[in-house]
Specification:
Elements (H helix, E strand, L loop, with lengths): L11 H16 L12 E3 L8 E3 L1 H9 L3 H11 L14 E2 L3 E4 L3 H11 L14 E5 L11 H19 L3 E5 L7 H14 L11 H15 L4 H9 L2 H6 L1 H25 L3 H24 L16 H13 L4 E3 L2 E4 L8 E4 L7 H15 L4 E4 L6 H14 L11 E4 L5 E2 L16 H19 L5 H21 L7 E2 L2 H4 L7 H20 L4 H4 L9 H11 L1 H11 L3 H20 L8 H24 L9
Parallel strand pairs: 5-6, 5-10, 10-11, 12-13
Antiparallel strand pairs: 1-2, 2-4, 3-4, 7-8, 8-9
Helix pairs in contact: 2-3, 4-20, 5-21, 6-7, 6-10, 6-11, 13-14, 15-16, 18-22, 18-23, 20-22, 20-23, 21-22, 22-23
The chain binds one RNA strand through helix 2, strand 8, strand 9, helix 14 and helix 15.
Length: 625
RNA sequence: GCCCCGGUAGCUCAAUUGGAUAGAGCUUUGGUCUUCGGAACCAAAGGUUGCAGGUUCGAGUCCUGCCCGGGGUACCA
């Protein structure tokens, strides 16, 4: 996420940072203050100017002079006359803050640099390769609310990285292997025989039911039953007859599942055919749901657990041989510094675990795919698991890139979606809420709300608008707060359309677009005029311009930190700045043609940044709503 | 027990990673508008940032100890 050199910078922060750094190094060469960060920041309060330099306090400490004296020296030494109003003693405030106000013409120049095809985010010469682990579909299960955050946040992080110039490889770590799947396969073969599974298996709902059935059938083996069985009392055994029968049946089913798992691992045609069918049926449905949420998760992003099956044994053996792993209580573990619980990579019965797969995944992603960064967009409850796996991979040397540099592993953890009761979000019957159901209800509500405000909405457009607003509401809610925090799911709040919501941002886009539509109706050549020179006069124009200039760095920050809520907050502020501008600065009815053209340019740029930003959030765009 | 995460206005959340008087939205009250979409804009009201110490020019942010809530804690994924 490199920043452009200040010479071509469009971000005032970059320009000011460079100029003040220059002044500091000239003034304090050879002193402890020489390398002091200029500490340039956008001012929170307009009365402190547009930007501020906060370095004088730290410098004062370093060179043993009063901070205000340092500030005085700084503002005399720094050369920013080309972009800022002249600095005088009046610009020094408080303990030594230097307040800076940009010149209107400089603002226009900077804005024109933003007005390029890439909106200030040119592709860097060296594109960093990043793997984003997202979505996490499970075979034989519908996409439900438990997949929402990984899909939406992961997709947005991937988009931000890509927009900031990274080469992104999305990886859907599909849960397509292991005993649970074997249980389903075993159950299906018992129920339908060994014939072609395509003949009886058509949709995911069948599998969803089969999965639950298989889970239930294999359960029933608890410690109480075990105790009764072993106590040898005929009386107790008679009383517990049903439970014992159930347990015996469950054990048989479980044994069947384990046999099936072995068969699957040996690529037996019957089991493999059922597995393939389950895979096809599941993915067709789940990828369609992902697409409806405008998440870019496609078949080629799938890298299921099954694809690591062949690597597990050799990796564990290798780690044992190299002394990275050790035997412990019959199992194989990798001990990780600073964590009490070791990372378990082979069970005492010889089977592998999900940690084994994840260690192999790191090896593949870094050493084969060449990822300099791997971002895991996974539930925060997996935090310990990833600390263990990252530590194990590190010890194994799997985080070393082919060139020798070390890859960065990051768990972009997110909190839980809660119901109104504060417990994890479920249906009244305790089921997981399906994403299709969620989306459908959101669309119905969105349509009703849209029609109540805009009854003239063309029937042909209604479906598109309802979908865009629903996706905007759902995604924005999920993205707009810090991802580590839990949130309570509420249709009412996300579709309230007032304040900080996805629909509000769409509304801002619709309003700016309607200006151009109106322009066309009135015969104004908006395309030509909006290419006119920018001119910043009114306070509302200036505030909008300052907001626009922050866009590229905001996207880079989101890519760096994997925190989409920063982009949400930015876009909300931009939408707010535009709303004020829209309120106070007539565009088509501007007092003269020059002003109209300049304002059309500002509108065009606002439209482009809003659309681009909404695109990074994965929110579908509309012209009307 | 140990580990991780959270605690900010009545409610939902921010706070540019240590900067000025902690900001938005919702709610409430009042106001703006013969004008490009009122899903708007402006203003008022609302705070011991869980508690107590510490670090320093400066702490919601960092360090220590407590309190409350959630989660995780060796052979499920």
């Amino acid at each position: 996420m490199s920043t452009p050199s200040a010479e071509f910078a469009l971000n005032p922060l970059d320009v000011l940072r460079e100029r003040f750094a220059g002044a500091i190094s000239r003034l304090y060469a050879g002193t402890p203050g020489e390398g002091q960060d200029p500490l340039i920041a956008a001012s929170k309060n307009p009365k402190f100017g547009d930007y501020q330099c906060n370095a004088a306090m730290a410098l004062g400490k370093l060179v043993g002079k009063p901070p205000r004296e340092v500030a005085e020296a700084l503002l005399k030494a720094v050369e920013i006359g080309d972009i800022a109003e002249p600095l005088t003693g009046a610009n020094i405030a408080g303990p030594g803050f230097i307040n800076i106000t940009l010149r209107a013409d400089a603002l226009a120049t900077l804005l024109s640099r933003l007005d390029t095809a890439d909106l200030g985010l040119p592709a860097p010469a060296k594109r960093e390769r990043v793997v984003v682990d997202l979505c996490g579909v499970n075979l034989a299960k519908q996409m439900h609310v438990g997949h929402l955050r990984s899909t939406v946040i992961g997709d947005t992080i991937a988009r931000a990285l890509s927009r900031a110039g990274a080469e992104v490889i999305r990886q859907n770590h599909v849960g397509d292997w292991g005993l649970p799947i074997a249980m389903v396969i075993a159950a299906l073969i018992r129920e339908h025989g060994t014939g072609d599974p395509a003949k009886y298996l058509h949709e995911l709902d069948q599998l969803d039911r089969a999965y639950k059935r298989a889970q239930a059938e294999c359960k029933g083996h608890d410690e109480l039953v075990e105790a009764v069985r072993h106590c040898g009392s005929p009386k107790l055994a008679a009383e517990w007859e049903d439970e014992l029968k159930q347990a015996t049946a469950a054990e048989a089913k479980l044994a069947d599942a384990k046999r099936t798992l072995m068969a699957l691992q040996n690529r037996e045609p019957t089991e493999l055919a059922v597995w393939k069918r389950i895979y096809a049926v599941t993915m067709a449905e789940c990828l369609r749901v992902a697409a409806e949420l405008s998440a870019d998760v496609r078949d080629e992003h799938s890298a299921g657990e099954s694809s690591y099956a062949e690597e597990l044994g050799p990796v564990v053996d290798e780690l044992l041989r190299r002394g990275v792993a050790e035997e412990s209580q019959g199992a194989v573990v990798v001990r990780v510094e600073g964590i009490a619980e070791p990372c378990l990579i082979r069970k005492s019965d010889g089977a592998f675990l999900y940690a084994t797969t994840d260690v192999c995944a790191i090896r593949r992603r870094v050493q084969k795919l060449g990822a300099a960064r791997v971002v895991y967009c996974v539930d925060a409850r997996q935090s310990l698991h990833f600390r263990q796996v990252f530590g194990a991979a590190e010890r194994a040397g799997y985080t070393a890139l082919p060139g020798g540099e070390k890859a960065t592993l990051m768990h972009a953890a997110f909190g839980t979606i809660l119901g109104e009761d504060g417990r994890p979000f479920k249906t009244r019957t305790g089921e997981n809420v399906r994403l299709t159901a969620l989306l459908q209800e959101a669309e119905e509500r969105a349509l009703a709300a849209a029609l109540s405000r805009n009854p003239d909405l063309e029937p042909a457009e209604q479906k598109k608008v309802a979908h865009a607003v629903a996706v905007a509401a759902i995604r924005y809610t999920d993205l707009s707060t810090e991802r580590i925090k839990d949130y309570v799911f509420s249709f009412d709040r996300m579709l309230a359309f007032e304040g900080n919501t996805g629909p509000y941002l769409l509304y801002a886009l619709v309003r700016v677009r309607s200006i151009f539509r109106k322009a066309a109706e009135r015969g104004v050549d908006a395309v030509k005029e909006s290419g006119a020179a920018l001119r910043i006069g009114e306070p509302a124009e200036k505030a909008l311009a300052l907001a626009l200039l922050r866009y590229p760095q905001t996207v880079r920050d989101v890519a760096q930190t994997c925190e989409p809520h920063r982009l949400c907050a930015y876009l909300y502020e931009l939408a707010g700045a535009f709303a004020v501008f829209f309120d106070q600065c007539p565009v088509l009815a501007a007092k003269d043609e020059g002003t109209r053209a300049a304002r059309l340019s500002l509108c065009r740029l606002t439209e482009r940044v809003l659309a681009d930003g909404l695109g990074v959030l994965g929110i579908p765009l509309v012209d009307r709503m």
